[in-house]
Design a protein that fits this description.
The protein is globular. A three-stranded antiparallel beta sheet has the order 1-3-2. The chain is mainly alpha-helical. It has two domains: about 60 residues, Winged helix-like DNA-binding domain superfamily/Winged helix DNA-binding domain (Arc Repressor Mutant, subunit A, Orthogonal Bundle), CATH 1.10.10; about 140 residues, Up-down Bundle (Four Helix Bundle (Hemerythrin (Met), subunit A)), CATH 1.20.120.530. The chain contains eleven helices and three strands.
Length: about 240
């Protein structure tokens, strides 16, 4: 069973606010005390979460003023673009460096993911998805890049659980994961990198379409709540 840290719960809460458009670039976030109170966690956990978000540039802590969301592209798109660069390189190096134990581990993860698809267990699939990408990072053998992935664990877990709930993603990801592993098994570093790039590019496109549909729906809901000024005067 996955143990969820309190700081990860706070990160998910803040990311939810960002994804729903309730916090925009430049906006001030609730204080760590208010975050802790809203979520029901400790102030220490809230501070840890904010520090983690600040360390990857999503928020800025201004002493005496508060916590502010930084300017930039939508957070998921930036994270996916960063992952495409890092993980394509990891897949390439893993094809050159992976050992039999590493291959066996990834095979087991893929088998679990297929079982999760059959059961419709998105939460378990997302956990194995995170472990799959992390295992490739470990096999790549670059300690700095692996540390980058570990340092943004909360973001990655949130992102994968959100994206994996989109229609058709589990099946397409499963195909891409198999292609990536097959290339790594064959020691084809160029193909492994290409499949990883293709995998994350497809995820980016699916996410953009999802956001576009959400924004369209939100726009319709907003316009539906606006009263016709002429009707208002006639009443």
């Amino acid at each position: 069973m996955k143990i969820v840290r309190s700081s990860d719960v706070v990160i998910e809460f803040v990311l939810d606010l960002i994804i729903k458009g309730e916090i925009k670039p430049g906006d001030k976030l609730p204080s760590t005390e208010n975050l802790a109170r809203k979520i029901g966690t400790s102030v220490i956990s809230a501070r840890e979460a904010v520090q983690n978000l600040a360390s990857v540039g999503l928020v800025e802590i201004s002493h005496g003023r508060g916590i502010f969301m930084t300017e930039g592209a939508p957070v998921f798109e930036e994270l996916l673009e960063a992952r495409k660069i890092i993980e394509s390189h990891n897949a390439m190096r893993a094809a050159r460096n992976i050992d039999p134990d590493g291959l066996k581990n990834i095979e087991a993860l893929l088998a679990e993911m297929q079982g999760d698809i059959n059961k419709g267990d998105i939460d378990s699939f997302s956990e194995m998805d995170y472990q799959f990408h992390l295992a490739i990072g470990k096999a790549a053998g670059n300690r700095i890049l692996l540390k980058v992935l570990e340092n943004i664990e909360g973001l990655l877990r949130y992102q994968q659980s959100t994206i994996n709930s989109l229609p058709g993603i589990l099946q397409s990801s499963s195909v891409r994961h198999r292609e990536i592993l097959d290339a790594i098994q064959r020691g084809d570093s160029d193909l492994a990198a290409r499949f990883m790039t293709q995998h994350i590019t497809e995820v980016i496109e699916s996410w953009k379409k999802h956001v576009g549909r959400l924004q369209e729906r939100k726009g319709k809901e907003r316009s539906g709540r606006v009263k016709n000024p002429i009707q208002g005067r006639l009443r």
